[in-house]
Amino acid sequence: MTSSRCLFPALAAAALLLAGCHEVGSLNGTQVEPITVDGRRFEVRLRRTDTAPNQWRLEVNRATVVINPDLERESDRAREVARRIMDRTCRGRPYSQSVDGMRGINFYPVFTCE
Q1: What digits encode the pLDDT tens for the residues 65-110?
Q2: Is the separation of the CB atoms in 42 and 77 below 8 Å?
Q3: Are residues 36 and 81 in contact, defined by beta-carbon separation less than 8 angstroms?
Q4: How many helices (H) and strands (E) does the chain have?
Q5: How far is it, in rounded angstroms, from Cα 50 to Cα 54?
Q6: DSSP H helical segments within the chain, as ranges?
Q7: Which of 1, 60, 67, 104 could pair with 20 in a Cys bridge, judged by C-beta atoms 3.0 to 4.6 Å apart?
Q8: C-alpha 4: how far from chain center
Q9: pLDDT-derived band at 45, boundaries 50, 70, 90
Q10: Going by C-beta distance under 8 Å and a sequence separation of 6 or more, which residues neighbour residue 99?
Q11: Based on C-alpha coordinates, what's the Rg of the chain?
């Protein structure tokens, strides 16, 4: 009886941790740049694509565990992070976004500086 009472809190804690997990990508040959929006931390990775000049692949991942996320608000925050990076990368020039990939709370766009 004692061992099952000890096991239940451990299983409950593990379930809560897993409930807040979302798959995080990784771009080979990149380093993480931390960015904060609305008090939420994000990890950003950026690299050129091999398919077109001035085309970039971006990953915006939440840096913290999110339990029961509001997907609309998380999407807005991730897009704001991406907008900042795209503006900075293109140095104020216009850009177009060829891929707008939202996966859970993480954002994976591909964009081209004009």
Answers
A1: 889 999 999 999 999 999 999 999 999 899 999 888 899 899 999 9
A2: yes
A3: no
A4: 2, 5
A5: 10
A6: 2-19, 71-89
A7: 67
A8: 38
A9: very high
A10: 108, 109, 110
A11: 18
Sign for the pseudo-dihedral over CA of 79, 84, 68, 63: positive
The 10 Å Cβ neighbour count of residue 81 is 22
What does the DSSP 8-state code read for residue 68? S
For the chain, what's the residue count?
114
Query: Based on the number of CB atoms within 10 Å of its own CB, is 92 exposed (0-12), middle (13-18) or buried (19 or more)?
Result: exposed
Distance from C-alpha of 31 to C-alpha of 4, rounded to nearest angstrom: 44
CA 112, CA 75: separation in Å to the nearest integer? 21
Distance CA 55, CA 76 (A): 23
Cα angle vertex 112, ends 36, 35, to 5°?
Answer: 5
